[in-house]
Design a protein that fits this description.
By secondary structure, the chain is α/β, with parallel strands linked by helices. Helix content is 33%, strand content 13%. It contains 10 helices and 8 strands. The protein has an 8-stranded mixed beta sheet with strand order 1-2-4-3-5-6-7-8, sandwiched between helices. Helix 5 crosses helix 7. The longest helix is centred in the last third of the chain and has 23 residues. The chain starts with 6 loop residues before the first strand and ends in a 7-residue tail after the last helix. The C terminus is likely disordered.
Length: 347
């Protein structure tokens, strides 16, 4: 029988019945590390989360996992703006719980896209809808920030070429055709997706692409990087083929004033043995590209590629365990570092 995970549950968004799970802490932690997982993740599903909560026991940090409407198998029915809006509510809730403490957002996998969307969304992105207030945070962590577009291509077509002669290729072609036909009915769908009806793609086709969830045309196109319009899609933040001009509209827009405490660096941790990344990808070069685009926001010195780490820190081999432990170690060092920069914050 699996052991339960001790902690406290808070309902932070009653209308949607969304909760936070605070891992049990030996003392009353002042500061909060809010963690959001990637596609398919739910509370306590991340392999590194229990070791991280244990490592933070002697500190003033508590680990709080965030449940979103897109958590578990619901990711295909939501989008990054939805996630960021709910993160804003969660951050505000935690801020009200303890106004003295600091808050750091940590995203794993596609949770990293959520964190980036939180840091870069501008008021007025969706002028037809009221946006929640995005509270300022004290730091941000991107763990395994991987391009969904390149990951889907790599895992479904290892040659790097979409092959229509295969079952997967036929499924992709069919889904793209349905999506294009649907979006042609609504010319402004790209700008205002919430104003139009959604179409869920046939599960028999998406299953061939190993998606494992119901997926709307909007999310499917965004994940695959198929915009049918100018510029990359909202999910396409970490691809290696993005132009410097586009990176300035993502990494270059990380707000060092209203969203992120001035002077706080961004921690980026890439997994050296990431199973969702093609071995042809030069991760070190990609990290340097992001570093350049972030200026004047700095990369934390703990940033880098973690040898042996799988995508989300999974695995039980000595190498994989060492990689998972290194993720925990660098996050702990980062949390100590960012508050060392601020005289009024003490761990």
């Amino acid at each position: 029988m699996a052991a339960g995970v001790p902690g406290t549950v808070y309902i932070y968004e009653p209308s949607k019945k969304l909760v936070l799970f605070e891992h049990a802490h030996a003392s009353a932690g002042i500061h909060s590390l809010l963690v959001v997982g990637g596609l398919g993740d739910g509370l306590t599903s991340l392999p590194f989360i229990a070791p991280l909560a244990q490592a933070l026991q002697p500190t003033q940090w508590r680990v709080i996992e965030v449940q979103l409407s897109s958590s578990n198998v619901n990711w295909g029915l939501r989008n990054l703006r939805d996630d960021a809006d709910e993160l804003a509510v969660a951050v505000g809730f935690v801020r009200n719980l303890n106004r003295r403490g600091g808050i750091v957002l940590m995203g794993s996998s596609t949770g990293s896209q959520d964190v980036m969307t939180y840091l870069t969304s501008q008021n007025g992105d969706q002028p037809l809808f009221e946006l929640p207030v995005y509270p300022q945070i004290d730091g941000a962590v991107l763990q395994a920030p991987v391009s969904d577009k390149e990951s889907l291509l790599w895992t479904n077509f290892p040659t790097g070429v979409e092959d229509d002669s295969t079952d997967k290729g036929q499924a992709l072609k069919h889904c793209l055709g349905l999506a294009e036909e649907h979006h042609d009915q609504y010319p402004l769908f790209r700008q205002f997706p919430q104003a139009y009806p959604k179409l869920i793609l046939p599960s028999r086709e998406t299953a061939k692409l190993d998606l494992g969830a119901e997926v709307t045309t909007e999310r499917f196109l965004s994940l695959w990087g198929k915009s049918f319009g100018p510029g990359p899609t909202i999910d396409d933040i970490f691809s290696s083929d993005l132009s410097p001009a586009h990176l300035q509209r993502t990494f270059g827009q990380v707000d060092p004033v209203s969203r992120l405490v001035p002077g706080s660096p961004l921690l980026i941790l890439l997994s050296g043995d990431d199973e969702f990344v093609s071995p042809r990808l030069d991760m070190l070069r990609l990290l340097e590209t992001w570093k350049h685009a972030l200026d004047p926001v700095k990369l934390a010195p703990e940033s880098g590629i973690i040898p042996g780490a799988k995508h989300n820190g999974s695995g039980q081999s000595d190498r994989e365990i060492a990689g998972r432990d290194e993720i925990v170690k660098r996050v702990l060092e980062y949390l100590n570092q960012i508050f060392a920069l601020q005289d009024d914050k003490v761990i």
